[in-house]
Amino acid sequence: MSLAVVHSRALVGVLAPEVRVEVHLANGLPALHLVGLPQAAVRESADRVRAALLQSGHQVPSRRITVNLTPADLPKDSGRFDLPIAIGILAASEQVPVAALRGLAFVGELSLTGQIRPIRGALAMLRALHIDAPGTRLVLPADCAPEAALLPDGCALLAAHLTEVCAHLTARRPLPAVVHHTPPPALPAGPDLASVRGHVQAKRALEIAAAGGHSLLMVGPPGAGKSLLASCLAGLLPPLAPAQALESALVASVSSGFTPSAWARRPLRAPHHSASVAALVGGGNPPRPGEITLAHQGVLFLDELPEFPRAALEALREPLETGTVTLSRAARQATYPARFQLVAAMNPCPCGYQGAPGRRCVCPPGAAARYRQRLSGPLLDRIDLQIDVTAVSPAELLGSAPAGSAHADPQASAATARRVATAQARALQRQGALNAALGPAELDTHCQVDAAALALVQRAAQRWHWSARTLHRVLRVARSIADLAGQASVLPAHAAEAVAYRHSAILGAPPEPAAAPP
């Protein structure tokens, strides 16, 4: 037989469409031609496959070999097609039986010695195969076993060398099947809130942000503790549910690789402020996920927020609303999940000390205003909580913790996490989503507001000319505060606190509406 068809999988975003590897042997000068929009890494597979076959003790037919990767309009990248191409050549030249290929799909990069190297996106391919072709098993590199174990038993076969795959196809030695296994949940990352002295208001804002999934901006001088507070947020969030943990593992699989030790842990991403648009939201050709996708189901911390490129910050606006990011290129389009919780920190001015007690701002006139203008109004409009973080006094920082502070409780993060988990469970039971994800229609249904609280919010909205988005975000925050208090409806105290968190005083929001109307 001079024709063989081997099934494989490509990778487009977090999707894995089917690819048929058709291998045809014909008379003519010995050569190996690849067609079907192969990119550079795929075109180079001809040399890797030839060497791997020879080193594994097989023959490369001295004929014209044509390999067609279908569908032809789908660009193919990376070395994951090495193994199916090699198997197709062996089947077309009758060195392995074609009938043995039924019910199997193959992915894997070959070394020159025939070793099968791990690939990116194994979990995405397994999930797609499990949905599109139930009963079909995927032959994977052995190093991808931790990812394959996250899906049901028997969906994947593991191979470390090309000879092992050939032995399985010739019924000499079957490949081991993957057994379903999930690692134990990882411990939360980041420091404990007990290590943070003072900052009672900032800790309260962190608790509200964690309870409702809200975004948070902290404004304060250098060394005030903004970064330390932000690093505590991931430890306040409940562990990922199995479906959420699988989504997070899927994102890691298509980017840098899944790590079993991080299973069910909320990711915490903190890119440097020199990050480009492509690094932050994703990009490249083929498109690759950015930091906002790597922070899916976790926390994205942007320190020195005004120092980020303006274009990169503006690119966050749509993902903050939709929870997804779509990267469009001329040849393809990829959609990635991006349901992250944004925590940002910034100084009030370039020198950092505007308004700081005991310090003098040395910025030239107008520098502070220009510095703050690097953040556009539409971006700030999407940040629910905006607070000022002032420096802690040396006496409080070095002395014994005052009664009632977070440091007095060695389990501060654990105690706060329990309150957050209770509030989130209340919201999920009521509406099936966290408060930050509620749309206008869901707010009307699930956010019951007391008449006095509603009057307070209306007065604030009229005084500062809030947009509809701002008004809805204040109501969502008030709903989270009410959930933390165990209240079925939003009371005036909850609404007043939500209004007070709406803007940092340094960024220009007055505090008058924080008091309930008479």
Structure description:
This protein is of the alpha/beta class and 518 residues long. The protein has three domains: 3-169, Ribosomal Protein S5, domain 2 (2-Layer Sandwich), CATH 3.30.230; 193-434, P-loop containing nucleotide triphosphate hydrolases (Rossmann fold), CATH 3.40.50.300; 438-518, Helicase, Ruva Protein, domain 3, CATH 1.10.8. 36% of the residues lie in helices and 15% in strands. It has 22 helices and 18 strands. The protein has helices at residues 40-43, 45-55, 82-92, 122-132, 145-148, 162-169, 200-212, 226-231, 233-236, 242-254, 277-281, 291-294, 310-314, 317-322, 367-372, 377-381, 394-398, 412-431, 440-446, 451-464, 468-485, 492-500; strands spanning 3-9, 18-26, 31-35, 64-70, 104-106, 109-110, 116-117, 137-141, 156-159, 216-219, 268-269, 282-283, 288-289, 299-302, 324-328, 333-337, 341-346, 385-388. Strands 11-14-17-10-18 form a five-stranded parallel sheet. A hairpin with a 4-residue loop joins β12 and β13 (288-289). α2 packs across α3 (82-92), α18 packs across α21 (468-485) and α20 packs parallel to α22 (492-500). The longest helix is centred in the C-terminal third of the chain and has 20 residues, at 412-431. The radius of gyration is 28 Å and the shape is elongated. The chain starts with a strand and ends in an 18-residue tail after the last helix. Mean pLDDT is 89; it is low at 402-408 and 509-518.
